[in-house]
Write a structure and sequence with these properties.
Layout lengths: L10 H12 L2 H4 L7 E4 L13 E4 L1 H12 L9 H4 L3 H8 L1 H4 L4 H17 L3 H7 L2 H15 L14 H16 L2 E2 L3 H4 L5 E3 L6 E3 L4 E4 L3 E5 L6 E6 L3 H9 L3 H23 L15 E8 L7 E6 L2 E7 L5 H15 L3 E6 L4 H5 L19
Parallel strand pairs: 3-8, 9-12
Antiparallel strand pairs: 1-2, 4-5, 6-7, 7-8, 9-10, 10-11
Helix pairs in contact: 1-9, 3-10, 7-8, 7-9, 12-13
């Protein structure tokens, strides 16, 4: 069941919601506007490798929050299935189809773009870079102009700068009101009560809408999607302390955390770091292969091959495309212009890209245009 506000609302309410997102169109169309940036965090803890993450700019973050606050994000809507439909693909890929989109279709598109970003790092930025978000706002602006007819209560005036500032302030306040916990075992419980400051929903944490990320999960209001709680996953130290105190869940999880930490430490000790670690390959044209061995086992490995010759082997991580880019850069330093490509085998794709729908856009298999 779709429960976006576009289904039951007055014309004035729709116009207000349109104006709220169209206010961001001028910023999106400014030459050189940055939607955000990728960050590669460093770690001073031995054996810990941090994956890159995308940080939204202030305007982009305000746009995302405004989409929630104005009801453009649909609940009880299976966006994962819908995005594979001919309707979704036509609206996404055909500007002419998007020019005829209804407010309901705009809501579906925005829901898909924004909700997908929670599962796939950088997905929302990719939607902006492709021009899709700007086209969505341009269609919203066109619908808003259609409301500027005799008898319409809202004219198509420019949104003032104070109104934009108020929108950004509301977004900041909304994000800051989410409670951030420090210890999963001592502070979180599915029974802990939550109160939504937006729509006044009251319920237990287990009844909220939950989204999981690499290092944490959040709990949002099931009615209006206001984020209420941010819960980091437990560290190994926290799990050990909880297990020692008799926490059954910690006792069950601790062996998994220990194995994960051991894998990261083993990778840090044995990974390729310098071109001098690689053997010479006396060929004018080198096409390398990225393969996996014993995937799913404790001794799972990435194997770099030149034809049948193994050049390098190191521990395999899941969703390891950032490591692919690091290794590719070192291979390029070692073999220079002779090295033409690094191509993953079919069986390595699942481990390379994992659950990310955008990871394949962040790697390059030829050395002429390696993504950095």
């Amino acid at each position: 069941m779709e429960t976006a506000k576009t289904q039951s609302q007055s014309p004035d309410q729709l116009v207000e919601r349109l104006r709220g997102i169209v206010a961001f169109l001028p910023s999106f169309k400014v030459s050189g506007f940055k939607f955000g940036h990728w960050t590669q965090p460093s770690s001073d803890q031995l054996g810990v490798m941090m994956l890159p993450y995308f940080s939204l700019s202030e305007v982009a973050a305000s746009f995302e929050q405004a989409a929630y606050d104005l009801g453009w994000i649909m609940h009880d809507f299976n966006w994962g299935t819908w995005k594979q439909t001919p309707e979704a693909m036509s609206l996404r890929d055909d500007p002419r189809a998007l020019e005829q989109a209804t407010p309901e279709q705009l809501a579906r598109l925005l829901t898909t773009c924004i909700r997908q970003d929670r599962f796939c790092e950088g997905a929302l930025e990719a939607a902006f870079a492709s021009g899709l978000l700007t086209r969505i706002l341009e269609r919203a602006a066109a619908i808003l102009r259609e409301a500027d007819e005799p008898g319409a209560s809202v004219v198509h005036e420019r949104t003032s700068e104070p109104e934009k500032d108020q929108s950004i302030s509301r977004a900041k306040a909304s994000a800051e009101s989410a409670r951030v916990l420090g210890n999963y075992y001592t502070e979180f419980s599915g029974k802990m009560p939550l109160v939504c400051p937006n729509c006044h929903w009251i319920g237990a944490a287990k009844d909220g809408a939950t989204e999981e990320y690499k290092d944490l999960f959040d709990v949002s209001c099931p009615k209006c999607s206001k984020m209420l709680l941010v819960v980091p996953f437990p560290t190994e130290e926290q799990a050990k302390e909880a297990a020692a105190a008799g926490n059954v869940e910690a006792m069950r999880v601790l062996p998994l955390l220990v194995r994960r930490e051991a894998l990261w430490e083993r990778l840090e000790r044995t990974k390729l770091k310098f071109p001098e670690q690689l053997p010479d390959v006396p060929e004018d044209e080198i096409n390398l292969v990225w393969d996996t061995e014993n995937a799913g086992e404790e001794d799972a490995s990435v194997v770099i091959k030149a034809k049948d010759r193994v050049l390098w082997r190191e521990p395999l991580l899941y969703e390891c495309w950032p490591r692919f880019n690091e290794v590719e850069a070192i291979l390029k330093q070692k073999y220079g212009q002779s090295c033409r490509s690094l191509t993953p085998t079919d069986r390595s794709h699942m481990w390379l890209f994992g659950d990310s729908l955008t990871a394949s856009d962040k790697v390059s298999f030829t050395f002429d245009d390696v993504l950095r």
